[in-house]
Amino acid sequence: MRNMFLLGFLGLAACGGGGGPGGRHGTPGGGGGGVDPGGPIDNNGQTCTKMDILFVVDNSGSMAEEQANLGKNFPLFIDVLNAFKTAGGSDLDWRAGVTTTGKDVSYTIDLGGLALPMTEKGENGHLQQKCGMTRRWIERNDNVDVAQQFACLANQGTMGSSLEMPLEGMRMALVDRVKDGSNAGFLRDDALLAVVFMTDEEDCSRSDNNFSLPNGICNPKDETPVSQYVSTLDTVAHGKGRWAVAAIAGPGPGACMSSFGSADENTRLRELVTSAGQNGIFSSICSGDLAQGLKDALQTFSAACESFPPIK
Asked: What is the mean pLDDT of residues 46-69?
């Protein structure tokens, strides 16, 4: 079963990727952090037959090249998913949706005597429906060219919020927008939940509004603890080991550079990845090609699918 994924991984790697400027990629468990990933997971010999994939894409002003590259590489991502066979020999029943890192927020940039009020609009976790889509997500058996449709969907534009909140965007997509019916039906209780983040900035996720940012810089002390987002995933997926996460972001230390431009170190996404243990992977957005990051994500999701525990 895993051999089919490995063939696809080789195809993705041949199309680009590698470490490139900015250093390491594909770090299992992420490193750093501070959230306990827990012990080994007993799956009672189960494998998943379904996978719900959420992409959280940064749509701020610096992300045009990365979005275009994501769309270019997605056909190979789809080919690998379609080649996967479950333990029973059937095709993997997958679906994929896209939201962004932006939310409606008002805040003030405090420049030491000069206050700049800011009001920004975002997608608030809504799965984006465009490019001829008949629902808010794409499914394996849709009667369209799903790779081409996703390539279109990956282009979320660059007019989004400059205060990137990928973790909060994920939470809103999986919780708030499910509760209000906007994303209802996307999540399935018997599916592996897989989340892919793509951003070139640090995560500034917080749930409050009308706050102040000294010099326009996010303060981790004011942000929602990463552990709360881990708890959200545990709850939504019905247990640890039933979700997996891949971050394609700035690996650190410090900023990295590539043909896409610069990317700040994302310590909070690395903490989330660390919390996922073997079900998490962190890849560098500074590789110059997202093929490597998507390869890392697929390999991690494949392993998570083959070690899929029952609902707790």
From this structure: 90
